[in-house]
Description:
The protein is mainly α. The chain has one domain (2-363): Glycosyltransferase (Alpha/alpha barrel), CATH 1.50.10.150. 79% of the residues lie in helices and 0% in strands. The protein contains 14 helices and no strands. The protein has helices at 2-24, 32-46, 50-77, 79-86, 96-113, 116-143, 150-153, 160-176, 183-215, 229-247, 252-256, 258-289, 301-321, 328-363. The model is unreliable at 1-15 (pLDDT under 50).
Amino acid sequence: MTSRRSRSMADETCQPTLLRAAVWDLPPSYFAMVMATGIISMAAHMLGLTLVARLLFYLNGVAYVLLWLLHGLRLYWFPQRLVADMLDHARGPGYFTWVASSAVLGSQFVVLAHAYTAALALWILTSVLWVGLTYTFFTVFAVKKHKPPLQEGINGAWLLTVVATQAVAVLSAHIAADWPQPYRLELNFLALSMWLWGGMLYIWMIALIFYRYYFFPFSPSDLTPPFWISMGAMAISTLAGSLLIANSPDAPYLESLLPFLKGFTVFYWATGTWWVPMLLLLGIWRYVIKRFPLEYDPSYWGAVFPLGMYAAATEQMTRAMEFGFLGIIPKIFLYVSLLVWAITFVGLLRSMVRRARPYLSRIF
């Protein structure tokens, strides 16, 4: 009886400690796991893997709710820590995964479940988050007194601002396809505006990233997985453009812009495609030549997402523009992204077990 009571007391004291330890250093970019899982689910649905798509959809809903709960606890327990991350040049852009993940999950509700009420709720949340984070982020970082040098402050995670913007365009275009007029016109116009702004933002960001690549020293530790978002940002821009092309019969202004929409959609796809072998070569340099250790890190979800997005975007572009000769590419990238997702997910589980082991050993 005594041992049982002491075990219960130990359990009560250790559980909060374990939870606090997990929440203390929770990266704001962890919502990239929802982004990656969601877009791979949608790509699987588009390519006929219905069961896989459904399972990932359900898992994604659970992950999304859990991450909001964890970040809520972080705000309650460690508000200064959360604010410090938001003001940090390296970690601050990770908050844009909150926007993109909400939009991706909303798109899942449209594509897989035809649940437009849930999608609309997520669209409202996505829009509020986008406005709040965008103007807070760019204003604060502009007037910030102490700023790091470019080679320390810029990384691929900054392109999450582009991904978040294009994610709003994608979700708006998905919802617009089912809405009655005149709301369909308005949502398509919003999607078009966000698509154009995301493209402009990418030009600004990638210029700085290119400058950092080629005019400053570059070590293996600098090549973090979020650099894959250089490709992912172009892939989601391709997806948004392809949806606008598909929606053009419902909006006369889109129909009048069709040559422009098609040209820039192919432009985005070609740019994203150029990045694929480049990033693979840099990955070989990092892990094979320089022997950088390959260990699980939450930032690896930022590399999984672009692979799934490239598969979904290429498939959507193939349908919208009747590029049947590209049909093999989405299938290849879907299976690659599923494999990389599975490896990363196993790494997440092992990391959780490893972090929990010292606390569990006190109980058992």
